[in-house]
Amino acid sequence: MAQAGQGFENTQLGKLLEKAAGRDKAAELFNMIEVDAKLLAECSANVPRVIVAQAMNMLLFAKNLDAVPEGKAYVADKLEAGGKVVFDHGALRTVAGTDTGALPTGELAFKRFLEPLGFAVAGLYPLAKLKMTGRAYCHIDAPESVAQFFVSELHTDQFSPAFQDAVKQVVGTSRDPLDARAKALLATLAETRSLPFDDAAELLPKLVGCFAVQHATPSVEAYETLLAESAEMAWISTEGNAFNHATDHVSDVFSLADELRARGLPIKDKVEVSANGTVRQTAFKASQVEREFIAADGKRVTRVVPGSFYEFITRDDVIDEATGEKKRDLRFDSSNAQGIFKMTAAAC
């Protein structure tokens, strides 16, 4: 693993982050996040897709911390104690079965660039209680070294006509954050599995920009209609495709949860345990954030709603039946996911 930011300047990953976010931010990211040595290749003319993917993930992790004060404070304490974050996965929500304006519908908004970056669907997770489906995107080239994405789709056709109308009113205004140039670079990346350094540096901020709100400010009426049937869609109406949460892999989530609870921090009451017992998760409750809405008279008003949150996960090692090798269990669990998703319910 990389040591506290040492020598990152001479690596492709370090140079790419420095170009995208500045030297100080790059150093901060390397100090904060564990980076596998296999991702620390020296500079060369072309940047492999796995390095672009890792750079994007590190920037997205930092973006989540900026949105979640509880997570930021926890990470600061961890660094002060000499630890680092092992970034396990980021989660985001999408909307399927409706008009999403210029943005591709559902998971397609992310599949179109996750696949060129080297990610592939490793598992499908029905979230029936939420009327959603989750997909785990795992990196083909470095599955245990690059954080996964849990991409969920909300199925609007399973809700009432009034709800469907409100969804369309909100996300039908969506813009596409990827311009023609970005799409051309992604096509090249898909074909060659690498990009010239300057092209990779140009693409990187555009990829990060996909994890944001792409639609217009929702109306109060639409928000309340959505909230009545789905806290998850109400969340999407204010937070869009931002990280719902970022997740830190820890050695013992049970003891950590007890410690954080004893300190009076807003930790989830229960640790979620997968059906096979190998994956255990908990989280801080969602940050409460102030968001704008359009009132009935056309004026802008604000109200406090749930934002993003920070999650903790412990994964056991399991034997790969195909190879006989011991590997970290990178799978997810539908019941766990539905329990974790409750962190953004308005009542939390």
TrEMBL record:
Its EC number is 1.13.11.93. It is an enzyme of class 1 (oxidoreductase). Its cofactor is Fe(2+). Gene3D superfamilies: 3.10.180.50. It comes from the Bacteria. Keywords: Dioxygenase, Iron, Oxidoreductase. It holds the Pfam family HGLS. It comes from Crenobacter cavernae. Coiled coil: none annotated. The keyword Cell membrane does not apply. This is 2-oxoadipate dioxygenase/decarboxylase. Belongs to the 2-oxoadipate dioxygenase/decarboxylase family. One of its GO terms (molecular function) is dioxygenase activity.
